[in-house]
Amino acid sequence: MAQESQELDPQKNEVIRLERESVIPVLKPRLIMALANLIEHSSDRAEFLKLSKRVEYTIRAWYLLQFEDLMQLYSLLDPVHGAQKLEQQKLTSEEIDVLEQNFLTYLFQVMEKSNFKIVTSDEIEVAHSGQYLLNLPISVDESKLDKTLLKKYFEKHHHDNLPDFSDKYVIFRRGIGIDRTTDYFVMEKVDMLIGRFWAYLLRVTRLEKVFSRKSKPNKKDSKGNEMIREGTGDDFYVERIRLENMQLSSRNLLGKTLIQEPTFDRIIVVYRRASTKSKTERGIFVKHFKNIPMADMEIVLPEKKNPGLTPMDWVKFLVSAVVGLVAVFSSLEMPSADWWVIFAVLSTVIGYIVKTYFTFQQNLAQYQNLITQSMYDKQLDSGKGTLLHLCDDVIQQEVKEVILSFFILMEQGKATRQDLDHWCEELIKEEFGEECDFDVDDAVGKLEKLGIVSRDSIGRYQCVGLKRANEIIGTTTEELVLKARQGNLTT
Predict the structure, then answer these.
(1) Is residue 474 helix, strand or coil?
(2) Are residues 243 and 185 in contact, defined by beta-carbon separation less than 8 angstroms?
(3) Which CA distances in Å does 257 have to 242, 243, 320?
(4) Number of H helices, E strands in the chain
(5) Whole-number Å distance between alpha carbons of 475 and 470
(6) Which residues cross the membrane (predicted)?
(7) Phi and psi at residue 359, in whole multiples of 5°?
(8) 290 with 388: CB under 8 angstroms?
(9) Separation between Cα atoms, residue 429 and residue 425, nearest integer Å
């Protein structure tokens, strides 16, 4: 963890526990070449590189039909041109409903294979428990979103701990990163100081209970582990650094300040707009974003409402006005009214109201800037482009898992499933300095399907030799095409 440029209150630091994911965070070419360089004999190295290509070609062929079905279905449900194609097909409403559910089934399978996970209600609560750059309450206009498509899917495909909005839109996430911003944050610090002064006044006037919300206990996952500050050995921790937790000092207030927030490396949002009386919506939106701060996750939500002053802001306005008027009239009724006290009270009340308004205007400008940034900088793709990216992701991950596990068995000999899992994770950490939760079950399943590993009488896995593995897989169509291009195909 990088050293912060300001002092933080150690009692208020926020540490978020995050689960390691089954993603090998190393590019496939780099992984294969690094493993090949660990092989001593050049002939074995050549056989290993040939095996890597044949494994990729074979796995790509396995998924070809499924991916083609996925893309064909989406061509009918594309929000841009899908309606025209559906009209040409002359399908009934019931038939289109079946196609929609088939598409979602394929899509969720590809998401799972690509190691995307549905954001749970616990993760949503943890994300919303802090603020980063977005300081406005953002809500979705639910009247503009369809509520039947996803509801029907989840009725047939049960998922635990779904958020409340899962019948309207689904958020998938993969990968964790860190976003850091260093700036003077002048207005934010002024807002923080006024907020602390406001909290002090509430405590003094004993009105704190009116505004404070009851604190909720930390949500726990199915294993009983707290989402914050607790975890297992397979988890890792990211610290939130916020202005609200900053210690008051001239150095912190006048100098640049670092704030930090964990990010979702990739986010995919799936939803459909609501139908109108004149038009039945069938298009399904699939949008792909990158590097979204957890606390600012609202910027990827569909059909957002224009933000405005919150009910709490209006309550503060009214309470401030009432408190100010009561204080003024009480001072005027005294035999010797202190005009300086009256002036101080009125200045405080008016200043707080003006501060709330201008803070809202600043936050609104910041919100518009973040929305623009999310559209141009953070949105990777949408629709068909996202699906193609997902399909390639699946193949890349599967190839890396198979090649890595075969290499370990080739080097170590026989291994139990647990040993294979541990050795693969250790190799990734030692050679590349990365950590992941290796999906050994999926890797072993693919190796057995390829026919290049077997199990002995006590359940340990062992692989065949490199040359034999290449013979078992055989020459692939892609290799024949490459030979034909080079003019080396013999007849």
Answers:
(1) coil
(2) yes
(3) 9, 8, 31
(4) 16, 9
(5) 8
(6) 314-332, 338-358
(7) -65, -40
(8) no
(9) 6
- Please answer whether residues 76 and 89 qualify as being in contact, where contact means their C-beta atoms are separated by less than 8 angstroms: yes
pLDDT at residue 1 above 70? no
The tokens for 402 are 């198979």
The rounded distance, in Å, linking the Cα atoms of 103 and 75 is: 10
Q: How confident is the model at residue 477 (pLDDT cuts 50, 70, 90)?
A: confident
Q: Is 475 left (phi over 0), alpha (psi -120 to 50) or beta?
A: beta
Q: What pairing do the DSSP bridges indicate for beta strands 453-455 and 461-463? A: antiparallel
Question: What's the CA gap between 260 and 130, in Å, rounded?
Answer: 11
432: left (phi over 0), alpha (psi -120 to 50) or beta: alpha
The whole-angstrom separation of Cα 380 and Cα 266 is: 9
Residues 212/296, Cβ–Cβ less than 8 Å? no
- The CA-to-CA distance between both ends of the chain, in Å, stands at 62
Q: What is the mean pLDDT of the chain?
A: 82
Q: How far is CA 170 from CA 112, 272, 301, 457, in A?
A: 14, 10, 10, 45
Alpha-carbon distances, residue 374 vs 168, 258, 379, 470 (angstroms) = 21, 22, 6, 46
Per the listing, tokens 């070419």 go with: 29
Q: Would you state the pLDDT for residue 446?
A: 95
Distance CA 219, CA 226 (A): 6
Res 311: pLDDT: 57
Q: Distance between alpha carbon 176 and the CA centroid of its chain, in Å?
A: 7
Closest CA to 317 of 257, 379, 282, 359: 359
User: Shortest CA distance to 120 belongs to which of 158, 157, 161, 150?
Assistant: 161
Give the tokens for residue 490: 């013999």
pLDDT band at 364 (very low <50, low <70, confident <90, very high): low
DSSP state at residue 222: T
Give the whole-angstrom CA distance, residue 283 versus residue 74: 9
Alpha carbon distances (Å) from 442 to 260, 401, 413, 422, 447: 35, 8, 20, 15, 9
**Residue appearing with tokens 């919150």:** 310
